[in-house]
Amino acid sequence: MDCYTANWNPLGDSAFYRKYELYSMDWDLKEELRDCLVAAAPYGGPIALLRNPWRKEKAASVRPVLEIYSASGLPLASLLWKSGPVVSLGWSAEEELLCVQEDGVVLVYGLHGDFRRHFSMGNEVLQNRVLDARIFHTEFGSGVAILTGAHRFTLSANVGDLKLRRMPEVPGLQSAPSCWTTLCQDRAAHILLAVGPDLYLLDHAACSAVTPPGLAPGVSSFLQMAVSFTYRHLALFTDTGYIWMGTASLKEKLCEFNCNIRAPPKQMVWCSRPRSKERAVVVAWERRLMVVGDAPESIQYKQLTIQVLLDRLVLRRLYPLAIQICEYLRLPEVQGVSRILAHWACYKVQQKDVSDEDVARAINQKLGDAPGVSYSDIAARAYGCGRTELAIKLLEYEPRSGEQVPLLLKMKRSKLALSKAIESGDTDLVFTVLLHLKNELNRGDFFMTLRNQPMALSLYRQFCKHQELETLKDLYNQDDNHQELGSFHIRASYAAEERIEGRVAALQTAADAFYKAKNEFAAKATEDQMRLLRLQRRLEDELGGHFVDLSLHDTVTTLVLGGHSKRAEQLARDFRIPDKRLWWLKLTALADLEDWEELEKFSKSKKSPIGYLPFVEICMKQHNKYEAKKYASRVGPEQKVKALLLVGDVAQAADVAIEHRNEAELTLVLSHCTGTADAATADKIQRARAQAQKK
């Protein structure tokens, strides 16, 4: 039977503690935490990391990244730091992130990286720069304490109600203190700092020298200090290797312990259990952790390189023992059990006396979906051992298609790789396989492979449209896709050919393809385009100017503008342009030329199929009211009022509207009656309305 207290460690005479993993962090850190500014909010709040902070060994061009995670490592925000160099990070009691810059400006961000506000710690801080900073919590709120380059302290006990306080000067202080912290006593914030063997307490009025009671002799410097979260207890680490623990008021000593280590610790913090009087200080060095209770006993851990031990066990094929150690130490699966199982699987594939199916099954049963395990890596080891079929079977268990495909291509299983790439839905992966297949297979086999994979065929066609037009034509020919072949030759006639003869020949090929596809409309339209191209070339030879590649309508318009109305009319007849469309084209062109005489002749050549209101509108568009009035009189009764209003004859428009007894027309004319000049016309319309109502 297991001993229930096996994982508990003594702390003092009457207390025990244990360390176990509550949960695994979900983050994927790219840098060591030691290379980041880190701030963890109290009570299991968010964690802020400032990647690539300003350090001498870092390139100046590297832009820092501020990232915020939940307490379990879930990413909440990530943003490039675009402001100045940051000295310190800390969280307020309201879970706002305070970023203290070197120039004394404090930027405040929300939990999700949203910028809230900023404030300055004063001109003196700006001039002397920030050497060090602390964010602390009091009953009044969250505060900021600054140590400047002039070795003076400035603080604000509540950033929500900013009131800056410049602390008294420390006599003879010529360099930065070896350590310092903030204390809260008598409802006020104080600074405790160490200068050599001396401790000084700064309040709002004075600098006082203080001495810890019962401190062991021989201390020449204090290397680290830590105050408890409640500000009731203080721990001091001296250069003699002693840890002094007592009250923060420095009136009572709790204990003193010689840890036999004189190097300054990386970190020292207080810890305690809720509703318990047991207190302890956790001290951390580079590869050592020590828990010191408030009695002269301690428990010490050396952070050994467990990975070295595990690697040696793996080399000796002691996999079960390595796994037991991982489980006992509760290492994350990716670093522990999963890594050991992956090594075991790579060894398993070398057992050639076991069939491929049995090996693959055994590996999958043992590994399952273990996090961090790459079946493609194991399959690659199998392929390296000459077991290609086993490698393929192992790849079936690999959930990431992007990991399957490269190895399949390496193993010359390109068609299977194509199927896997298509299953993944990753078009870039499919293109990778297609280009590999194209270089590996002859043209006929390559096309046949594509025919069996519609998605791959479609993607390859898209590729060919931009990169290999001739290959695209071959694909259409192989599939007897005459419709697409016709469209291909249409595009080719414009993109590749400059000579009219070559373009006409390409269009003829397109028309033949459309006929084979039984698309007579497309075929006839292509033949019409061939006729138009030939005619346009002839017009350029005979008349000069530019006609080739104009649309049919633009060709007619260009002929009219050039004074070749007869040719325009002949072209319209040849291509069966409807009369209404021809009249619109000719009307617009003559108006653009401002050839009013020719326009009048044209209007009288026969009855207009589009009426005469367009003539009025076009003339007014050209700001020629005189010509517009000529056509207003010829407009039919149903559009007469609108025509008269266009030329500004409001009175006559009113007469016509009254004669028509049309309420809509009367309303329209009234809307054009503006000013005193049209008052009589407006009265006339109102009388006509009243008279109509009496009847």
TrEMBL record:
Q: Which residues form the Vps16 C-terminal domain?
A: 373-691
> Which cellular components does GO assign to this protein?
early endosome; HOPS complex; late endosome membrane; lysosomal membrane
Q: Domain Vps16 N-terminal: where?
A: 4-302
Top-level taxon = Eukaryota
Checking InterPro entries in the record gives: VPS16, Vps16_C, Vps16_C_sf, Vps16_N
The alphabetized list of GO BP terms reads: endosomal transport; intracellular protein transport; vacuole fusion, non-autophagic
How this chain sits in the membrane, per its record, is: Peripheral membrane protein
User: Sorted alphabetically, which Gene3D superfamilies does this protein's record hold?
Assistant: Vps16, C-terminal region
Compartments (UniProt record): Late endosome membrane; Lysosome membrane
GO terms, molecular function: actin binding
Family assignment from sequence similarity = Belongs to the VPS16 family.
**Complex and partners:** Core component of at least two putative endosomal tethering complexes, the homotypic fusion and vacuole protein sorting (HOPS) complex and the class C core vacuole/endosome tethering (CORVET) complex. Their common core is composed of the class C Vps proteins VPS11, VPS16, VPS18 and VPS33A, which in HOPS further associates with VPS39 and VPS41 and in CORVET with VPS8 and TGFBRAP1. Interacts with RAB5C. Interacts with STX17, MON1B. Associates with adapter protein complex 3 (AP-3) and clathrin:AP-3 complexes.
Give the protein name, as stated in the record. Answer: Vacuolar protein sorting-associated protein 16 homolog
What organism is recorded for this protein? Odobenus rosmarus divergens
